[in-house]
Amino acid sequence: MFLGRHAHALDAKGRLAVPARFRDALAEGVVLTRGIDRCLSLYPMAAWLPLAEKVAALPISDPDARNFRRLVFAEATDLTLDGQGRILVPPELRAYAGLEREALVVGVHTHLEVWSPEAWAAVAARLDADGGAIAEKLGELI
């Protein structure tokens, strides 16, 4: 299970250190792809494979489904952690998420999200302002 928020630096080559507490869960490989909210999503293979199957099963006759498949798969890359627990974030994914020198690695239960500090600050501000209303709205589903 992935929980918490962890600040990490990207090195000059675009490598990001994965928090040490998560490395064992990611040892079998990971998939890094675009997240929906201008962040990156980092999935362990055990979480990626069922998600990928669901996305691949969407009807190709539906334009939204085709576009969602493109969003998820077109820039996805499978990676392994290096000996120091780092992943190489491809330049196009760094640009998409606005990652330069710093990144926040955020645990969201089944996977991790990678955010620029500025983008995360905006999300955190919205959560602070709207958290109660969001909880109330979704409370019936839990």
Automatic annotation (TrEMBL):
Q: Name one process (GO BP) from the record.
A: cell division
Q: Which SUPFAM superfamilies match?
A: AbrB/MazE/MraZ-like (SSF89447)
Q: Does the keyword Repeat apply?
A: yes
Specify whether Coiled coil is a keyword of the entry. Answer: no
Q: What Pfam families does the record tag this protein with?
A: MraZ
Q: Mind listing the GO molecular function terms for this protein?
A: DNA-binding transcription factor activity; transcription cis-regulatory region binding
What the entry lists under InterPro entries is as follows: MraZ, MraZ_C, MraZ_dom, MraZ_N, MraZ_sf, SpoVT-AbrB_dom, SpoVT-AbrB_sf
Which keywords appear in this protein's UniProt record, sorted alphabetically? Answer: Cell cycle, Cell division, Cytoplasm, DNA-binding, Repeat, Transcription, Transcription regulation
A cellular component annotation (GO) from this entry? nucleoid
Its localization reads: Cytoplasm, Nucleoid
Q: Where is the SpoVT-AbrB domain?
A: 5-47, 76-119
PANTHER family from the UniProt entry: TRANSCRIPTIONAL REGULATOR MRAZ
What's the family? Belongs to the MraZ family.
Q: Which NCBIfam families match?
A: division/cell wall cluster transcriptional repressor MraZ
**Subunit architecture:** Forms oligomers.
What is the recorded name of this protein?
Transcriptional regulator MraZ
Q: What is the gene name?
A: mraZ
